[in-house]
Amino acid sequence: MVIFLCPNCDKDISSRTQLCPYCGYQRGEVTDEELREFRRRKLRDRVYHLKMASYVALTLLIAAFGWYLIDTSGFQYRSSVGPYVLFAAGAVCYMVIRLYLYKSKAALRKFNF
Ligand SMILES: [Zn+2]
User: Fold this and answer.
1) pLDDT in tens, 9-23
2) How many structural domains is the chain composed of?
């Protein structure tokens, strides 16, 4: 087995594979099985990253709630729009991420029947 650099993304790939596992660059004849495995792995990575992103969005929501509590407690009521803006931004991000996550998971399920 020889390791060489992928001409497309400059990452180390094995000479045994005709398909770069990082960018999908095809060196020669690629079997359907290789292509399928590549797509499945890319989708799995995407689901993982979307999950991480959804946790970040949830953290924004919690932070907004904490900010709201700090703002409304204490001697003087300070009505700031900050917590609401942060909450709205977090909620929109979360919903968009969940939508992509749902689509990616549905696509991934087709690979694992
Ligand atoms: Zn590559």
Assistant:
1) 999 988 888 889 889
2) 2
Domain carrying residue 18: 1-29
> Within this chain, do residues 25 and 35 fall inside the same structural domain, yes or no?
no
Instruction: Give 29-46 pLDDT, tens digit per residue.
Output: 888 888 888 999 999 999
Calculate the alpha carbon distances from 41 to 48, 55, 68, 107 in Å.
Answer: 11, 22, 41, 12
Helix (H) or strand (E) holding 13: strand 12-14
From the CA of 67, how far away is ligand 1's center (Å)?
Answer: 45
Instruction: Indicate whether 14 and 62 sit together in one domain.
Output: no
Cβ atoms of 53 and 62 within 8 Å: the answer is no
What is the 26 CA–ligand 1 centroid distance (Å)?
Answer: 8
| Ligand 1 center to 32 CA (angstroms) | 18
Q: How many residues are present in the chain?
A: 113
